[in-house]
Every structure is written in structure tokens, then in C-alpha cells.
Design goal:
Blueprint lengths: L8 H15 L11 H13 L8 E4 L2 E4 H4 L5 H13 L3 H7 L1 H16 L6 H9 L1 H7 L5 H20 L3 H17 L7 H10 L3 H24 L6 H10 L7 H15 L1 H10 L4 H14 L12 H23 L7 H17 L5 H4 L3 H13 L5 H42 L5 E3 L3 H9 L3 E2 L15 E5 L13 E8 L5 E2 L21 E2 L5 E8 L1
Parallel strand pairs: 3-4, 3-5
Antiparallel strand pairs: 1-2, 5-9, 6-9, 7-8
Length: 534
């Protein structure tokens, strides 16, 4: 294979084509999970450009001021608003307009890997195909530009110090500053960039570099505080609100971090097993530690199915081995400082965040994959290595595709059911007592939102219709009602669930639903309830 550092054009084309091949088929996917929030706030930017944050939002059944709901930096809303104005706001056009961001992020990933790996293409493709990257980077959320800019910021730092080029060094600070203005979680990239710069003798410039990285977010937080928008108050509220919840207990959270790391970056956790030749004692230690963590006496109150326990042990053991390989350091690899500090930074952020989500694990997948790939390259080449790595990529692709199909069906049924309810009840007042995609499409079609601050279910009158979702119920009835109640369950033939509310432990979008990124289960994707009040 041609050394990509000598002639990267062909492999650039492969990476860009791979991103399009994976992302484009799912660009028509309806908005769901947190995407409707970004669409809603972006619309406020267009409607009220002078006071875009002067609004309240019905969040889990209660009207709440923006300052108590979010302290996201502003760039993501401005970007989505611009694209919405240009494209009309449709799912396909919005995602397509942001495809260049996805391609740019993948190219940054490739350039970074090529600084340390002789053959970076396969590891880069594996990272892109991983569930954490594939599903989350195709969402209309802040991680898309934040991760893309963060990867370019890391590459600029590596190139700046290795090539002794001040332009790239300071460009790194500017890129990371922009990344932080899209999502504060981009701080994960700052520690590895600074650590690599320090390791290469750039300690004297790092204080100025750090100041430039922090300048944009600091200015925004100061302005936000002066304007009464909270200044990180919402994030602190989420963290404090999560304390005492079962998903924040150390056994559940540690289970989630390890299982998500193992499941969301499948190739990254398989490669060390092949490349580092684990000794029987080390393998047994990882399995024993995972089995102890998933033992029944550490379960949350809900029963854990044997298949979920076994899945958790398997994924956690693979993650433990991958993390051990990175934390102990592969033999004298060039990228050791970068991979080590990047992994540590990602683990700290994942642990401090109010919940464990796959989009937080997204920050951990590249350093694990690249560290393992660099270790493989340090060993004498054997013919079967490419076969093993190719098999790993194929397994990752198969898992990612299956999860994407399930996720697309879950998102699609939110829009389909909203349309169905509005068609079947013409002229009647329809209320939604849910969040996410179902709420987005119901309200877009004219439905109203139940609001506890306005009486909740007291707002409902005879003849009204109320729609609820088991996955995203915001407000159950608080009084007896004379009503016709219809239930509709949504099934899917692929036995993988990213969100579990029946018997599984799938919690891809939040470990509040379960400690696994996906669960082997045939339970429904969702269950809708339509209450026709008599």
C-alpha cells in the first residue's frame, strides 16, 4: 500500500466516499432524541434574532426558561439557523447541507492518524463505522462540528510542533476555540493537544495557546452571565439533579462507561486482543473484573436478564483490555503521549457528565483505535493481520448498520404516528404529553403541549385527544378520566434495541435507560398511547 503521507489523494477520496456511503442513506431520517431541541432554538434565532434566547420551552411537561434548560455555546444554533433558512428545514436538506462538515471531520481524522500510522486507512474507516461515530456524527447536534473542529485542532497541534510551524501551532488554538463554541465537551481535545505540545518542547508557548483556546468560551460565558442566561448553570443543574438517581450510582455508571466503550467502538476494543498478544493472566483479570462489576449484588433495583449481564461482561472485559493497553503504554510508540492523554481526558469527561451516552464515548474511540493500530504496526507483519483487521472492520460495519436501521425505524415511527393521529382526529384538539421527535411532529401539525405550570391534565376537556409515548412520557394522567384508550406497539425484526424500557438494558442515548449501548432484545421500539377523553 502506498504511504498516505506521500500521496494522500486516493485515500482521501476513499475516506470521503466512505462517509457519504454510510451517512447519505440515513439523511432522510426524521428528527428525534435531542435533534428537535436544536431545530426549535434555531427557529427562535430566525424569528427573534435580537433576543433569540428569550423564550420558554415545555421540557418534560413543564414550561421552563431557556437559561434553566441549556447553556450550549451559540454557534451550533446559528449554524443550524443559517442552514434552515437556506434549505427550508427539511430533514434531508438539513443533513445534506451539513455533509461537508462530516467529510471534513473524517479527513481531519485521517490526517491525524497518518502522522503516526504507516497504514492509517483501515483504522480510520473502522472509527467512522463504529456505532459511536456513525450514529452520532450523522445527527443534527452540536457534536458534529465540535468533533470535526477538535480533530483538526489536534492535527494542527501535531503538525505545528513536529514541523516547527508556528502557523499550524496557533491555528490549533483557534480551531479548538471554535470547537468549544459549538460544544463545551470539545474540552476533551485540549488536554491531549497541550500534552503533545509539552512533550515536544513547546511548554513556553502553551500558556498563550491555552489563553487563546479559552478566549471565545470565556467571552461568551461572561456575556451570557451579564445577560442572565445562566453561565453553565443548566449544566450544573443537570449534574446535581442526577445525583441520587440510580444511573449515577458508581456501579451503574462504571458498568455503563465500560460497556459503552466496548460496544460503541467495537474494532477499537478488538484490535488490542489481536495485536498485543494478551497473556492468559491479563485476560483472566479483565474477565474477572468485568464479571465482578456485573455481579447480581451490584444490580440496580430492576432485574437484569442473563443475556444483558453476559453482554455487559463481554463488552466491559474488551474495554478493560483496550484501556489497559493504552494506559500502560505500547512499547515506545510515537503517539503514546497523545493517545494516553486523549483517553484520560475522555474518561474524565464521560465520568463527570450527568449521564453516560454514546456521543460522549465518541471522544474515546479514536485514541483507542489508533493506539492499537500503532501497536500492530510495531510487530513483524504477518499475512493474517490484514485479514483480522478486515474482519474487525466488517463486524463493526455490520453492527453499525443494524443499529442505524433500528434507530431510523424508531425515528421514523415518531413522525408517522404523529401524522396518523392528526389524520384520524380532524377538528379535535390534540395534546402531546411527550418529548423528542413525537412532540416535534405533533406540534408541527398543530397539536398542543400539556404544561404542568398551566394545570397539566386539567387543560384536557371532553372530546380532546392526548398522545403519550412509553419511551418519552412527560406527564401521565394525575386523575381518573372517562376515556377510550388505544395502544400501539412498534416492533422491529432486528433484535437490537438502543433504548430499552421493558426488559432490556439498552441505553445508547442515556444510561438512564440501561447500562448497555444496545441490548439483544425483541422488545418493542416504543409503545404509543392515545387517550380519547369522553
Amino acid at each position: 500500500m502506498t504511504d498516505p503521507r506521500k500521496d494522500p489523494r486516493r485515500e482521501f477520496a476513499v475516506v470521503a466516499g466512505f462517509v457519504c456511503l454510510l451517512f447519505v442513506p440515513f439523511m432522510g431520517k426524521p428528527y428525534h432524541i435531542d435533534e428537535p431541541w436544536f431545530v426549535f432554538v434555531a427557529r427562535q434565532f430566525l424569528l427573534h434574532p435580537r433576543h433569540p434566547f428569550d423564550f420558554s420551552f415545555v421540557y418534560w411537561g413543564t414550561s421552563t426558561p431557556y437559561s434553566r434548560l441549556s447553556d450550549h455555546p451559540p454557534l451550533i444554533y446559528g449554524l443550524v439557523a443559517l442552514i434552515m433558512k437556506a434549505s427550508g428545514g427539511g430533514e434531508w436538506s438539513m443533513r445534506l447541507a451539513l455533509l461537508p462538515v462530516d467529510v471534513a471531520g473524517a479527513c481531519g481524522l485521517y490526517l491525524l492518524a497518518a502522522r503516526f500510522l504507516k497504514r492509517p486507512l483501515l483504522p480510520v474507516l473502522a472509527v467512522i463505522a463504529s456505532p459511536a461515530y456513525w450514529l452520532n456524527m450523522n445527527h443534527l447536534m452540536a457534536e458534529k462540528p465540535a468533533v470535526a473542529l477538535g480533530l483538526w485542532g489536534l492535527y494542527a497541534m501535531v503538525r505545528g510542533v513536529d514541523d516547527d510551524d508556528p502557523r499550524w501551532f496557533w491555528a490549533s488554538a483557534g480551531l479548538l476555540d471554535l470547537a468549544l463554541l459549538f460544544k463545551y465537551s470539545a474540552v476533551v481535545f485540549v488536554l491531549p493537544a497541550a500534552s503533545y505540545g509539552a512533550s515536544r518542547g513547546r511548554r513556553g508557548r502553551l500558556w498563550g495557546w491555552l489563553a487563546l483556546c479559552a478566549a471565545g468560551p470565556a467571552a461568551y460565558l461572561g456575556l451570557a452571565r451579564a445577560a442572565g442566561l445562566g453561565s453553565l448553570g443548566a449544566s450544573l443543574d443537570y449534574i446535581s439533579g442526577a445525583r441520587g438517581q440510580f444511573w449515577s450510582s458508581w456501579p451503574h455508571k462504571l458498568r455503563s462507561v465500560l460497556a459503552f466503550t466496548g460496544g460503541c467502538g467495537l474494532a477499537a476494543t478488538l484490535w488490542p486482543l489481536w495485536g498485543a498478544r494478551p497473556k492468559a493472566r491479563q485476560t483472566a483479570a479483565c474477565i474477572a473484573a468485568a464479571a465482578l462489576l456485573f455481579s447480581p449484588w451490584l444490580d440496580a433495583p430492576a432485574l437484569v436478564r442473563p443475556v444483558d449481564r453476559l453482554t455487559g461482561i463481554t463488552l466491559a472485559a474488551a474495554a478493560l483490555w483496550a484501556l489497559w493497553c493504552v494506559l500502560r503504554g505500547f512499547p515506545k510508540s510515537r503517539g503514546r503521549i497523545l493517545w494516553l492523554s486523549w483517553t484520560v481526558s475522555g474518561l474524565i469527561w464521560v465520568w463527570l457528565y450527568w449521564t453516560v451516552t454514546a456521543r460522549m464515548i465518541l471522544y474515546l474511540v479514536p485514541p483507542l483505535a489508533f493506539a492499537a493500530a500503532e501497536a500492530l504496526e510495531s510487530r513483524p507483519e504477518r499475512d493474517h493481520v490484514r485479514v483480522l483487521l478486515g474482519s474487525s472492520l466488517a463486524a463493526t460495519l455490520a453492527l453499525g448498520l443494524a443499529l442505524n436501521l433500528v434507530d431510523a425505524r424508531y425515528a421514523g415511527i415518531q413522525r408517522e404516528f404523529a401524522d396518523q393521529v392528526m389524520r384520524e382526529h380532524p377538528g379535535r384538539r390534540v395534546w402531546c404529553a411527550c418529548v423528542g421527535g413525537l412532540k416535534h411532529y405533533l406540534t408541527a401539525a398543530g397539536a398542543l403541549e400539556l404544561d404542568k405550570s398551566r394545570g397539566g391534565w386539567e387543560q384536557v376537556r371532553p372530546g380532546d385527544v392526548v398522545v403519550l409515548s412509553k419511551v418519552t412520557d412527560a406527564m401521565k394522567p394525575d386523575r381518573r378520566l372517562l376515556a377510550n384508550v388505544k395502544l400501539a406497539r412498534v416492533e422491529h425484526p432486528i433484535p437490537l434495541r438502543l433504548i430499552s424500557l421493558w426488559t432490556g438494558e439498552g441505553g445508547f442515548y442515556s444510561n438512564a435507560w440501561g447500562f448497555l449501548p444496545f441490548s439483544l432484545s425483541e422488545e418493542p421500539l416504543d409503545e404509543f398511547t392515545v387517550v380519547e377523553v369522553l
